[in-house]
Amino acid sequence: MTVRPIVLWPDPVLAEVCAPVGAVGDDVRALAADLLETMYDAPGRGLAAPQVGVAARVFVMDISWKEGPEDPWVCIDPEIVGRSEDEMAMGEGCLSIPGVLAEVMRPEAVTLAYTALSGRRETVFLEGMLARCAQHELDHLDGIVTLDRLSEEARAEAVAAYGAGA
After folding, report:
1. pLDDT-above-70 percentage for the chain
2. DSSP notation for the chain
């Protein structure tokens, strides 16, 4: 396992739509291990492959490790197959845009289909922080960062705050 450098916005890889992975091989398992190691080191609650410069449809997340035991998720070729009608706004940080907290509106619950490291396709219902984290990381795989989900005015303020911190 290797801690990889985190790519910072506006690096072009963060705007790419990532390619599907397909079969889970040693390369994907190594990438997933590196993503987890990097996420815990950062320290974050989620990390997507493009955030370490790899345009592949893989993300990891662990929303509870800061308060309790590690509970890592590895999601390969994920897709949201269902969304709740209820939405909620919440401040989201991003390891690729350090120092910026963006207020993003998202569905409160989603149904996520993904391939696990075992190669088995899984479908799970996620709600609350787990649903929010999965949606945030899946955005990265589609070339979307939190700034892209803001109004023009809020984006300008966030970009200015990010620039001031650089």
Report:
1. 98
2. --PPPPP-TT-GGGGSPPBP--S--HHHHHHHHHHHHHHHHTT-SEEEGGGGT--BSEEEE-SSTTTSS---EEEEEEEEEEE-S-EEEEEE--TTSTT--EEEEEESEEEEEEE-TTS-EEEEEEEHHHHHHHHHHHHHHTT--GGGGS-HHHHHHHHHHHHHH-
